[in-house]
Specification:
globular, alpha/beta, Rossmann fold, 5 strands, single chain
């Protein structure tokens, strides 16, 4: 399963990419903001996008909504250092498959949401 990692912190992207690769995901790219994420989704056509909620140019909810308009939309998993409860109905309204807190990220957690 191919995955794109989107987060504005390069060190976090590197760590998560390594963890997901070790868990069997094919990490096809990384992006540091919403605009770059949308470009990468079109260019790379990942199966899954791990998408940080808080990005510098637009929030992850908006990125998810736009990404799901693609001809072949990816499955979106949102993440944040905050709890899912902090976002109320925004996760469901975005069309994402679900949410995993950054402290609980693993290949298994993502796979359970996108299977």
């Amino acid at each position: 399963m191919t995955i794109l990692v989107v987060d504005d912190h390069p060190s976090f992207r590197a760590i998560v990419s390594a963890v997901l690769a070790a868990d069997g995901f094919d990490v096809v790219g990384e992006a540091g903001d919403g605009a770059a994420a949308l470009e990468a989704i079109v260019a790379l056509r990942p199966d899954v996008v791990l998408l940080d909620v808080q990005l510098p140019d637009m929030d992850g909810f908006e990125v998810a909504i736009r990404a799901l308009r693609c001809i072949r939309p990816p499955r979106i998993v949102l993440t944040s250092s905050r709890d899912a409860d902090d976002f109320g109905s925004l996760v469901a309204a975005s069309g994402a498959r679900g949410f995993v807190a950054k402290g609980e990220l693993s290949g298994a957690a993502i796979a359970a949401l996108v299977a």
